[in-house]
Each structure stands twice: as C-alpha cells, then as structure tokens.
Automatic annotation (TrEMBL):
Protein's organism: Sphingomonas morindae
SUPFAM superfamilies: lambda repressor-like DNA-binding domains (SSF47413)
A Pfam family that the UniProt record links to this protein: YdaS_toxin
Name by which UniProt lists this protein: Helix-turn-helix domain-containing protein
Lineage: Bacteria, Pseudomonadati, Pseudomonadota, Alphaproteobacteria, Sphingomonadales
Regions that span the bilayer: none
Length: 101
C-alpha cells in the first residue's frame, strides 16, 4: 500500500475508534484485544482486512476508507454490472457468478 493510502486508511481507523467510543470499544467490535489495536495505532497501520466489514457495519466508516487497497468502488460497480437487472447486490457479497449453490 502506498504511503498516501496508508495515511488515509489510518485516519479512517481513528474515525472508527471515535465512532466506537474508544479504541477498547473498537476492539470489542473487531473481536480482538485492545493490545492488537494498540500495535496498529503505534505502527500507524491500517486495519486488517478480516475486521473491515465488522467495523463498517458497527461504525459506519466506509470499507473503502478503511482499506482502499482491498475494497474499491470499481469492484463494487463491476459486481453490480454482472448482476441480473433488479437484483440487489451488496458490495461485500461475491459476484453472482461466483456464488456457490
């Protein structure tokens, strides 16, 4: 991840912590220890990808802001373009052609 994306992702992580009330509250949302997030904060690292959807749902901070290297608006648009007309597609879902029966 380039430095500008990393800064943006860390600012989004800080915004998520504010929305959760504290870093401890954010850790509870993620299901990890406050120490895990303390290490991210110390290194100014982005949130690990497996926590992003939980944090977005609980805090309203966009997945695109939290991890711009993983989630892109273009990928979401492509999933919507592949979906059948009128089908509801959430960006966190697999594309319709990739779903397992």
């Amino acid at each position: 991840m380039d430095i500008n994306r990393q800064r943006t992702a860390f600012r989004a992580l800080e915004a998520a912590a504010r929305a959760a009330g504290s870093w401890t509250g954010l850790a509870a949302i993620c299901g990890c220890t406050p120490g895990n997030l303390s290490q991210l904060k110390k290194r100014r690292s982005p949130l690990p990808g497996h926590y992003v959807l939980k944090v977005e749902a609980a805090t309203g901070v966009s997945r695109y802001d939290l991890r711009p290297d993983i989630f892109t608006p273009v990928a979401c648009s492509a999933k919507k373009a592949v979906a059948a007309p009128g089908a509801r597609v959430r960006c966190g879902d697999a594309a319709p052609s990739q779903r397992r029966p």
